[in-house]
Amino acid sequence: MKTTIQEQDGNLVAIFEGRLDTAAAPQCEQDLKPLNDCAGHDIVLDCTALDYISSSGLRLFLGVLKNAKPKGSHVFITGMNADLRNVFTMTGFINLFEFK
Amino acid sequence: MCSNMKALDLQMSQKQFTSWRKSLQRRSTLAIIITAAVLIETTAVVQYLFARKGIREEVQHRAQSELHAKSLEIRKLMVEVEASVKNMAWVIEQNLQHPDSALGVCRHLLQNTPSITGCGIAFEANYFPQYGRWYEPYIVRQADGRFKYSQIGSASHDYLQSEWFVKTKEKNGGYWSEPYYDDAGARMMLCTYTFPLHDTRGRTVAVLGADVSLDWLGKVINAKQIYPSSYNMMISREGQIMACPIESLVLRTNIQQATEKMKDTSVNSINRNMMAGRKGQTVVRDDKGQKNYVFYAPVEGETGWSMAVVCSDREIYYGLRQVGFNLLMLMLVGLALMGYIVWRMIRAFNRYQELNTSKVSMENELNIASHIQMAMLPKIYPPYPDRKDIDIYGLQKPAKAVGGDIYDFYIRDEKLFFCIGDVSGKGVPASLVMAVTRTLFRVVSGHESAPDRIVAQINETITEGNESNMFVTLFVGALDLPTGRLRYCNAGHDAPLLVGDGVGALPCVSNIPVGIMSDWKFQGQETLVLPQTTIFLYTDGLTEAENDSHGQFGMQRVLEQTQQSLAAHEQASTLLLNRMNRAVSDFVNGAEQSDDLTMLAIQYTKQQQEVRLRKAITLPNDVQTVPQLSAFVDEVCEALAFDMSVTMQMNLALEEAVVNVMNYAYPAGTQGDVHIEAQANDVRLKFTIVDDGVPFDPTAKEEIDTTLSAEERPIGGLGIFLVREMMDSINYERVNGQNVLTLRKKLAETAEN
After folding, report:
1. Is the interface score ipTM higher than 0.95?
2. Which of B98, B238, B284, B392 is deepest in the core (most CB within 10 A)?
């Protein structure tokens, strides 16, 4: 599992690669810390290379959203495959995020 | 809804019917009273008329008797006078030439006949030339009893022209004069009987006159009246009033003058008839409108007098009227009393009707309540047509519209939760407690899988505020369908029967019924139910079903029926219950059902499948081992040829389930293993997750709400939700000090997906 934060066109982009399961979640949480300081920037969670996500990963996504919203930042999700999108639908997370 | 509408319609039409019936009642009552009044009135009137007729005949009879008696009395006096006069006339005729001696005879007449007050001999003109043209010697009895002689004939008293003189001569016989007031001689009311006197050659030469005082006549006539205020009167042939109650009229007035001002003209015909000497009777109204009966008849003899008896109608019928009035009063009082009684009866009847109406509406409500209650009970059989591991059939016959028996079942997480209970008492109160108990059973078992804890929680709620001291005998069971493990808790209910290899009662410890005491420690039990075994549950309505001679169906018959069922290989739920139902119906044979009767049969029909795949892995309670778990799951899925999508779902479910166990079954800082076994047959894939940690039931967690916004959503609680979504069933058991979590996925569905 690899998580990279980039700044593209004034947006903060988090690129996920591999499996975001319970084992990977703590490291990922560390990697996402830069997103806490997102004032003035929208956040893009790039899931193009994300193979798997469990409830631990969903929790991290929710944490990012809860942090960004009060600062006026939008959180977008891009490139999510159908199976993961199904999980988002099932859990109602699809209503919380904006998808690109 | 439909039945509610029908009930409403029924109530409406009942109201209309009731008001129609009420008005009918009112009308018929009125008719009864009117008919009674008319009958009584008619009878009274007929009686009154008959009585009146009788009285009238009586009065007629009495009046005629009176007239006859008076007439006879008068006649007697008249005859006496006439006889005296006739007798003396012969003597006087012998002494006509000697008027003094003739007068002596007259004196003799006066002395012998007291009713004669005066007597005179009126001679033809110039009979004694020496006495002049008029000569009438006269003798009168004076008040002191002495006699006074006088000659009263003169130019001023020209008797030769007087009616009695002329008539007597004409008649040449006795003649009664009209009554008159003699102001010349006797100075009293008189009437004179005259008789012609002849000389030796037979010529009439004088008229002998005897004056009769009418004082006695009045006394005789009015001596006695037939009624206190009735009176008699007498008139002469010329209509002169001779006797009547008003003395001032006597001899002063003619009857026609006296009555000419009367409004009722029928009095004139009476006058005519009386003067003509006819007899009869007539009704005359006086000027005040009062009816008077006048009976009249002539007095026999030559006087031409006529006598009348006058009775007032009011007096004649006074007695009858009095009786009639009393009768009328009595009748009115009777009618009033009758009216009151009928009114009371109607009121009582109407109250009964109202009571009946409210009873009917209550029955309607009871029917609705019964529908609601029946809707609470499972009623579609077989309840799980897709399942091959369970066969259930239930039956309930409430003694009243609504019953106090309860039974229910449903499947959660591959466990069949079921209960049967009997609320103390019957009818509406029992049904309310039944409804509460059933709801509590559903609510509590929704998050609690252990029957003893389910019963304990139901007990706490029912005991709290149980002021009516109702209680429920309750049996709660949870049959783990994959394993056949039955956990149960019996709170004072009849022990269910197990019908399998043989028939036997399920061993039950004695817990008290629910609702009696809070904080009671209900003891749970467990057993293993073998495939094809039927659990037969019932309420005491079965064993205590009574026939007409109060014999009870009894436990022995229940056992016999189940044994026969088993012997005939008919222990399937439907067959067993139908057999029992037939037996109890035959036994009761139409006698009134005294208690609710409920039966529930659950047959465990699990088929053993050949295991085709079995893999296992043991992990420490460290979430960092999740990739190993993932690899294990991938391996299993590959063996079963699952596609990527399903494989990801299995991964997700297993990760969530195992991480849950790792985090919660082993408190932080403790170490332990988690064993995961995958097993598959032709039908389904099963993961069994076993750990040695503290009891932890992930299925008892409440469902999360996926519709909440980001701010409202709690971090966590998603795991078990995802497991439920991904798998077909999740099932927790605590077995031998271990937590056993079973996840199942149907293979047929995965193939379709």
Report:
1. no
2. B392
